[in-house]
Amino acid sequence: MRTKLLFATNNANKLREARQILEPMGFEILSMKDAGVDIEPDETGTTFVRNAEIKACDVYNELEIPMPVIADDSGLCVDALGGRPGVWSARYAPEGERCQKLLDEMKDVPEGKRSAYFECAIVYVDKYVCESFTGRCEGTIGYEERGENGFGYDPIFLRDGRTLAEMSSEEKNAISHRGAAMEKLVSYLKESYGV
Q: Is there a contact between 167 and 149 (Cβ–Cβ < 8 Å)?
C-alpha cells in the first residue's frame, strides 16, 4: 500500500516536482485540494524552516481526517546581495518579473562574484511529530534568462554551464535543493515507519 502524504502548497509547479521525486519511491502525494483544504498560510517566519513549519501545521490543523503533511519553503540566496532575496524570494517582485529584477540588481556584479544557492526546507508533521529537512543547490547567477523548463529563478541560475531551466526534470531533481531535502525526508520515513 502506498503511503499518503499531503503536500501543503498551492504552487502547482512544486506539487508536480514533489510527485516526480516521491511517487517513484512509493508515496502518494495529495494536494490541498484533494484533501478539501482551502487556506493560504501566512508565511511570517524569517527562516525557510519556520515558514515550512507554519504551512505544515496550519494545513494539518485544518484536516478533518488527520494524515501526514509535508510543506516546503525555499528560495534563492545571492551572496553579492547579502543573501537576498532569501525567504522573500516569492515576494521579491511580481510573478514573471523576478528574474529580470534580479538581473538588473546584479548588472554591475562581475564574473567570479555571482555565486548563489537555492535552499529548501521541508517540514513533516504527523500527530506529535514535527521534523525538518534541508537541502541546498550551489551555483551562480547568469546574465540572461535561458531555458524553457523549470520555474521561478531557474532560467538565471547556472549549474555546470547550464541554467536549471535548460535541464530536464530528471536532471534538475537529481541536483536540486528540493530533491536533496526530499531525499532526507524519505530516509527519515523509511527509518521511522518502514515505508
A: yes
CATH number of 3-193: 3.90.950.10
Average pLDDT over residues 52-63: 95
For the chain, percent of residues with pLDDT exceeding 90: 74
Between 2 and 107, the more confident residue is 107
- Residue of 58, 73, 126, 154 marked active site: 73
How far apart are the C-alpha atoms of 107 and 110, rounded to whole Å?
Answer: 8
Domain boundaries, the chain: 3-193
Neighbours of 57 (CB within 10 A): 17
Residue 58 known to be catalytic: no
